[in-house]
């Protein structure tokens, strides 16, 4: 292994501002570790971050008050700095349960600082708030508006007081060994908006406290109308003035603070306002968001709210100068991004019909995701983006282990998983491409099978990113297969999209070369589920219909294609075959003798195979855009809980070992700039 | 059992101010529970408190940050209010290790409040500090001197900031349910002095931060001279002015605050200064203490100290009015009490040659105290104030169990313990006194033996209070035996004083009736140690010499005295007896046929018994002021680790069953106003 990488620890990295900051850090080459208790946030944010940045982000579900657990994280990673978000943050709530606020925020920080001290990590960026200034209009004249950092602090609620206490603790800690501690205190004004990807954003539990989240819920129909608290202030439209800053600008402010600390050699303690310096009224924001939504949203002007004041605009000059940071996005940008996030995720991260659980003894990298819509339930795991359960009207249709660790058994016959970079065999573990010869691991006899030693099936895929329209789920997993891994050329990005409908499930592959390392590679992807409709330990008595009866002749010894496509002797197209002891299959049947291009999604989806069982109600139809499919009766299966013929496989894909045959090679050669694609669909109906 | 008693929880009750407050509370009828982590304090303070107030004070060694342990205390006792002292309190140290200060003080309080909340205890008196005001001279004019509670807060060090944070937390908690929480914030000025008893006081670890403790160490010779930081202030003598308040006055302030809270029916939050309102300069205090010591103490004027200001005097009017409390003691009183504490405890609670450990599985009530001086080592336990070890030049001389729990074995033959209220037998378990008949438990045949079912030997004695002059320890234990307990009349207070010298140990009994419940009771006390010089399992071969050979004739069946004092047939005064199988003793030998008065300490200390052993070096001489002594060869012993004749007893006391014989009764009848007393001494020398 290479030397340990420097990591930045992000506490509360699953939260609104935290998650956006993680993205900015990773996109700027930082390695980050996230700890979050998830009491007020969702791990889905992390999963989506990993999907967005296309790399894993180490995550630990830790309450920072648990010094022991937190310390373990410092043991596992070489942490050089901390950005500290973890906190409770609802002003109103803080007046009702102040102890919880002091405990979470203040105790939490003390615990964090003690662990940092213990591990000699003495660089911290702290997530403070403009709330520490309190009501700056108390100075009568406008001497303190826009608010500078030297403005005296006097928070008016427990939440604000916890932030101020923490600032003081940090100041005292810095003073206690001022040569060592580097402390950046960032005082936020009003963060708004969401990530332009539309994949992460603010996901308030309960009734939102802030203007825009509330407005968004009005727009999406979760709230009736916006209440405007007072329109008799001395502003251009009578509503109070605040400094709204796009959360992405805010996130970048942390990056700026971090590099500031990295640049200084001795210790330091400094506060910076993060704001735009431009005040906007409630109505300004209202209009901007209505514009983004495309219609005027319902609102009502009600009485002033206790504690509200006319103007709380930041003076961000210090940050502009010292951090060389400036807010660049507009309220319009924020409203656009917020609306994208809101429409894509009307209920935030929580999606009805979807739930997940940890699937391995340790960690979040491999979770099990269960989706239910209409008659279909499907469970997908990150490992191999595999199908762990597939049921129609309560009938379970695939072979699976009940826990993630079992999938690592050497006897696992690729249950439910997606295989690649090249499914099926590569003769003699080598191939030629653009005049160059590539060697791949010989993991089956003299050949390479299903992508080699650590194929796509043995990797934890990133994501998923889930969306739901009406009763249809779209679930995306991503995998980056690095150049040279298993001997294949080029960084390959693969995205698999499961579409889950009330009576069907389809999965679509999309792969392309990234990072310009090579001009071409080879790809052949398929799903390797073992199907069994019977509800019994064996598939015997299953009636199957192949819609095609030509197959690839193979050499009996090497099991490699001879190059001939001939009629299969023991079956006939569209004539049902009763699976009994004599009916053995492990052959590639041909849908299109002419093969195909690199993206078969352009060609039509054809029925290829059908299965029923006398003692089951489900009729199972397989369709695909692929030019061939392997039909395997699972005679080699022998693993925990399953034996010979426990399930059969239908693997739509490119011709077996295409790369070894000039005429078939184009099916699997993916050139830079092109996209590999294919689509396979499982349709279910009640047997007539 | 009776209904649960209401308790006040005192956190940090073993500390300087805490311990004095506990005394005031108990003396005013409160029941208190003390929790203290003892990191900065000593359990000896609690032991001495119990000795002073003559009752047990429940104690738990708990760090209040340990919510679980703290909650157990709330489960064990019905707590109705809390006085919260527990905190780190050294200003200078707080600037070096601020995190520990925030953790101990702030986290500690949050944890305490959470446990209180959980147990629905919502009344708290908080130990704050005038430090929260910071440098009040910052207001230029003297508008804030003397300092009123409305003076703006701005502490200048982490310690002060922890106190202010806690005040804010308490205010927020009160506001969150203002009808329920009752909060009293007491801001102390400069506590000085010690308890008039001289038994408890300030015991600073390391170099004292404060003027008087430092001055006291100069006086006692632990420090060379006092440094006076600046004599060029605008005061009458050029030294800064502070508000020094006697710790006992301060303690009473807590009592006043507590009754204030008890009086108010709805919730409340209020700050009060606890000070005298009278400023004194450093030199004022210096002179007052020099006067108490009786000589001028060495000092040197050095430069001003950073952060020092001219005048920090309290305005205590609010406390005077609202709490009806006023500081009444003078600086002179404080200096006198401090000097008494200092001379009596030159090294504070830590005494060279003394150490203690817990002696039972649970709790501090029964500790084992070991003292070493010269050739003598003795270990004393609170249970029965018993002697667990007694050695001379490394030769162990008494029978003992090695842990406190074994002393509760039913087979324990009174090892090392002090027996009472009436040692030896009371015929037929009843006696007449002032015409009234009292019945006592018949715990041996038809008689009462050694005070009945739960005699003095089975009680945990209070204390000890230990002092050391040159190489002599004085160790006092106290026991209150309640009226009617075991059938005896009157509340009897017994104090046993062990005097431990380099070659001798003596123990002295002093008992008197308290609380005026009866005119008279009966008392007869003795120590029941089993001696064995041999270092072997048996006392056989021991050579003993009785200095008297008359004894109390007893009835063979009842073992009760016949009333005759006659020559003992099988031994002669001053003629050594070799203890072999034939030599059996369980008789009371007579030192003075005329008996004695109730306090034998007035008569002389007479040698009564001597013992040596051929294979041991120690010569053991017993002397006593008592008129008789029981000599018992331990033939009835049969307990864990010990059998017949493992040790012999010498029990100097009053005549057996005196109360049943008119002529002897005066020996044991203790009248109100009189004092029962006796003295017994063990002297050791190296055998010639």
From TrEMBL, chains A, B:
Catalytic activity: UDP-alpha-D-glucose = UDP-alpha-D-galactose
Listed Gene3D superfamilies: 2.70.98.10, NAD(P)-binding Rossmann-like Domain, UDP-galactose 4-epimerase, domain 1
GO molecular function: carbohydrate binding; UDP-glucose 4-epimerase activity
Pfam families: Aldose_epim (PF01263), GDP_Man_Dehyd (PF16363)
SUPFAM superfamilies for the chain: Galactose mutarotase-like, NAD(P)-binding Rossmann-fold domains
Swiss-Prot/TrEMBL cofactor(s): NAD(+)
Keywords on record: Carbohydrate metabolism, Isomerase, NAD
UniProt keyword Isomerase present: yes
Gene Ontology CC terms, in alphabetical order: cytosol
Alphabetical GO biological process terms: galactose metabolic process; UDP-galactose biosynthetic process
Function: Mutarotase converts alpha-aldose to the beta-anomer. It is active on D-glucose, L-arabinose, D-xylose, D-galactose, maltose and lactose.
Family per record: In the C-terminal section; belongs to the aldose epimerase family. In the N-terminal section; belongs to the NAD(P)-dependent epimerase/dehydratase family.
UniProt protein name: UDP glucose-4-epimerase
């Amino acid at each position: 292994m290479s030397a340990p990488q420097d990591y930045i620890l992000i506490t509360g990295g699953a939260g609104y501002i935290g998650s956006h900051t993680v993205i900015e850090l990773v996109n700027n080459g930082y390695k980050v570790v996230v700890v979050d208790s998830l009491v007020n946030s969702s791990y889905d944010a992390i999963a989506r971050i990993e999907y967005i940045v296309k790399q894993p982000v180490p995550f630990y579900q830790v309450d920072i008050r648990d010094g022991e657990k937190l310390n373990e994280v410092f043991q596992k990673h070489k942490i050089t700095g901390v950005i500290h978000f973890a906190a409770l943050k609802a002003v109103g709530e803080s007046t009702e349960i102040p102890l919880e606020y002091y405990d979470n925020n203040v105790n939490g920080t003390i615990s964090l600082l003690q662990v940092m001290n213990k591990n000699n990590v003495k660089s911290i960026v702290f997530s403070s708030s403009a709330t520490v200034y309190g009501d700056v209009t108390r100075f009568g004249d406008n001497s303190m508006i826009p608010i500078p950092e030297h403005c005296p602090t006097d928070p008016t609620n427990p939440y604000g007081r916890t932030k101020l206490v923490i600032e003081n603790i940090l100041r005292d800690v810095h003073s206690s060994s001022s040569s060592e501690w580097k402390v950046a205190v960032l005082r936020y004004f009003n963060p708004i908006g969401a990530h332009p990807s539309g994949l992460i954003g603010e996901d308030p539990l309960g009734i939102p406290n802030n203007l825009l989240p509330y407005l968004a819920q009005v727009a999406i129909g979760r709230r009736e109308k916006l209440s405007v608290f007072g329109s008799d202030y001395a502003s251009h439209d009578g509503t109070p003035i605040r400094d709204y800053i796009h959360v992405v600008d805010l996130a970048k402010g942390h990056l700026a603070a971090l590099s500031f600390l990295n640049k200084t050699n001795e210790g330091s303690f400094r506060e910076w306002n993060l704001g735009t310096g431009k005040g906007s009224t409630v109505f300004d924001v209202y209009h901007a968001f209505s514009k983004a939504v495309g219609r005027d949203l319902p609102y009502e002007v009600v009485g002033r709210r206790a504690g509200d004041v006319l103007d709380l605009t930041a003076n961000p000059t210090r940050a502009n100068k010292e951090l060389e940071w400036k807010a660049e996005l507009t309220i319009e940008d924020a409203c656009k991004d917020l609306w994208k996030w809101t429409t894509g995720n009307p209920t935030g991260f929580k999606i009805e019909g979807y739930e997940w659980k940890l699937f391995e003894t340790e960690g979040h990298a491999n979770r099990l995701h269960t989706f239910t819509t209409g008659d279909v339930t499907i469970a997908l795991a990150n490992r191999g983006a595999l199908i762990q359960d597939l049921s129609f009207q309560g009938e379970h249709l695939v072979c699976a282990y009940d826990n993630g660790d079992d999938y690592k058994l050497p006897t696992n016959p690729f249950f439910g998983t997606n295989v690649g970079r090249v499914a099926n065999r590569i003769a003699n573990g080598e191939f030629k491409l653009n005049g160059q010869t590539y060697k791949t691991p010989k993991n089956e006899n003299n050949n390479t099978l299903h992508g080699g030693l650590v194929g796509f099936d043995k990797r934890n895929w990133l994501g998923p990113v889930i969306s739901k329209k009406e009763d249809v789920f779209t679930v995306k997993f991503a995998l980056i297969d690095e150049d040279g891994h298993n001997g294949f050329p080029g960084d390959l990005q693969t995205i698999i999209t499961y579409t889950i409908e009330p009576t069907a499930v389809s999965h679509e592959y999309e792969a392309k070369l990234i990072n310009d390392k090579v001009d071409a590679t080879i790809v052949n992807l398929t799903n390797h589920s073992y199907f069994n409709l019977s509800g019994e330990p064996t598939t015997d008595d299953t009636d199957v219909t192949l819609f095609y009866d030509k197959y690839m002749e193979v050499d009996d010894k090497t099991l490699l294609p001879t190059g001939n496509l001939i009629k299969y002797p023991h079956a006939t197209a569209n004539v049902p075959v009763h699976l009994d002891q004599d009916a053995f299959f492990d052959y590639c049947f041909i849908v299109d003798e002419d093969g195909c291009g690199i993206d078969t999604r352009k060609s039509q989806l054809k029925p290829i195979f059908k299965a029923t069982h006398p003692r089951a109600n489900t009729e199972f139809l397989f369709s695909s855009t692929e030019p061939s499919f392997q039909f395997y009766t699972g005679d080699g299966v022998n693993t925990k809980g399953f034996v010979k013929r426990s399930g059969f496989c239908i693997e739509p894909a490119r011709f077996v070992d295409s790369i070894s045959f000039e005429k078939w090679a184009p099916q699997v050669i993916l050139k830079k700039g092109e996209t590999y694609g294919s689509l396979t669909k499982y349709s279910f109906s009640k047997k007539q």
